[in-house]
Each structure stands twice: as structure tokens, then as C-alpha cells.
Amino acid sequence: MNTNMSVNNLFSIEGKTALVTGGSRGIGEMIAAGFLSNGVKVYISSRKADVCDATAKRLNEQYEGECISIPADLSNLDGVQKLADELTSRESKIDILVNNAGVSWGAPLEEFPELGWDKVMDTNVKGVFFLTQKLLPLLRASASAADPAKVINIGSIDGLKSAVFDTFSYGASKAAVHHLTRFMAAHLTKENIIFNNIAPGPFPTWMLSTGVGFGGETEGADWDAVGKSNPTGRVGTPEDIAGLSIFLSSRAGNYIVGQTIACDGGVVATS
Fold first, then answer.
1. Is 228 inside a domain boundary?
2. How far apart are CA 169 and CA 157, in angstroms?
């Protein structure tokens, strides 16, 4: 058996093309930055065009890569189709799809509104499924037995355990994404399209900032205080989430299929 065990062979993603939804901030931006740092052409998408464009510009300057903004609202099929059409007009194939776009909603159980249920489910579950569906031709064009296409769905530890927040639809939506990934893997692994989940724990993001009382601020917030309750004593870093995403996107991840991997400092495993 001829093998090449070099780090470059196992973990290189240079020359690949990726789409990262929800890539204008938070975990999506961290993953996009990790890809750009390693020679990937990255498209990012988010609902707010000005924010998405600004992030792409900043990432291009910071990492001297190619980061392209395609704003889209993935909570509805019109937005999903718009993103798929725009990407298809620019690329004949994509190697990596990261379904990261997501929203949350918090309210007491007795007051939880239908809007807070539908908005979360539409973005976090329906958007993931239909965007993947629309991009299958581009993924199939990339996929081969030697170099499969990769789909990474971003779930949450809130889909693996009960959250401390009153985010009922969010936890349910992420559990649905985890199981949807297994369904998609059952149908598409034989076509050399590999599906996996990452379930992040606490990271210094806008979403967590709103939940812990920082008002959406990420810079200058007391993340050390948040991290004290984590088994590792800290919150996640860009290297943590980017490293796992790179692993799953590379040759090293080709035999990992349909899994949900918690990237959480041990919250789930030790609870």
C-alpha cells in the first residue's frame, strides 16, 4: 500500500473552493478566515449585504486571499435560490459547503411566540436542507472517491443537551440539523459527498453575547468570566473551530461520515 502521511497531504485544503453561510461574523467568519489562511477561495453569505461585503473586504485584506460576498436571506426559498444561482453563475463546482447561517430566539415557555419558532426553524433547518439541495450539482461536479466534496453543518451543543437559556426552537432546530445530516449522509455518501456536523459550545460570538448579557458586544466583553464554567476554563477560539473545519474538509476527514462532533471544551462529555 502506497501512502503519503505528510501533514501537507493529510490536511491541505489549498486550491479548494468553499461557501460559508453566515460568514460575516462569529463562527462563520472564524471558519472563513481559517480557510482563507490555507489557500481556499471562500464565498461568504449573510442576510445583511453591507455587513457581508465589509467582512469579505476585511478578510481579503487580512489574509490576502480571495473572499467574495454573496448576501442572501436563507430563511426563505427565494433567498436560497438567489444564492445558489449566483454561485452557479460564478463557479462550475464547489468543494466545501459550510451550512453555518443560523438564528436564535429566547422567550419564557408560556410566552414563546409562533414567530420565534418559525423564524428559527426556517433559517436553521429548512435553509440548510434546501440550500444543500440546490447546490448538489456543484458538489457532485467536485466529488470523487479520491477527493470527496464536503458538507459541514454547524449544529450546537444545545442540540445535544438542554440549554440554560429559554431558546426552545433553537435547541430543537439544532437537534434536527444533527439528524438531517445523517439522512443526507445516507443518501449521498455513495456519491462521494461527505456530510458531518460540528456542534460548537461557547465561543465569543454576537449570539452568545446577547444571551449572557453583553448586548451583542464581542470585543472587550468579559469572556474569561463566561469561560470559567467550562471544563477547559475558557471559551473557544478561532483556531479551535477553524482547525476542526479544516480537518473535516481535508484528506484526513475523508472517512468521517455522518458524525456530530462537539467542539465545546468538554461541556457535553462531562455533563
1. no
2. 14
